Amino acid sequence: MTANIDDVFRDNLISILTDELKVLRAKVDISQQDLAEKIGISRQTYGAIESKKQKMGWDTFLALIFLFDKTEGTSKMIRQIGAYPPELETYLELK
Questions:
Q1: Which pLDDT score is estimated for 94?
Q2: Distance from chain centroid for Cα 88
Q3: 20 to 30 Å CA-CA from 38: which of 21, 44, 64, 95?
Q4: Which structural domain range is residue 48 located in?
């Protein structure tokens, strides 16, 4: 069964992740530049997102979720803060 993800749900997830970006990035001990390169955006764009001057897009959100999910120390954290809930995991399943 595939879950539906509406715009309100997406915006809520983006907001949750945005609020925790500094903490997550510090936990991984990575610079804004290196993180931005890993997810394919400029350091300026990442900095604007982290400082809440620019809204994160869905593609950037997904890239960050996948990165933090595959990184020791942040995988559990993104679930605990609610940025990667079971509904999103179900939605992203390729089965």
A1: 63
A2: 12
A3: 95
A4: 7-92
What phi and psi, each to the nearest 5 degrees, are found at residue 22?
-60, -45
Q: How far apart are the two ends of the chain, measured CA to CA in Å?
A: 9
Q: Is residue 74 in some structural domain?
A: yes
Structural contact between residues 69 and 79, judged by C-beta atoms closer than 8 angstroms: no
Residue 91 CB neighbours (<10 A)? 13
- What is the rounded distance in angstroms from the CA atom of residue 27 to the CA atom of residue 8? 28
- Radius of gyration for the alpha carbons in the chain, expressed in angstroms and rounded: 13
Kindly report, residue by residue over 46-62, the tens digit of the pLDDT: 999 999 999 999 999 99
Q: What pTM was computed for the model?
A: 0.90
Give the integer Cα–Cα distance in Å for 6 and 27: 30
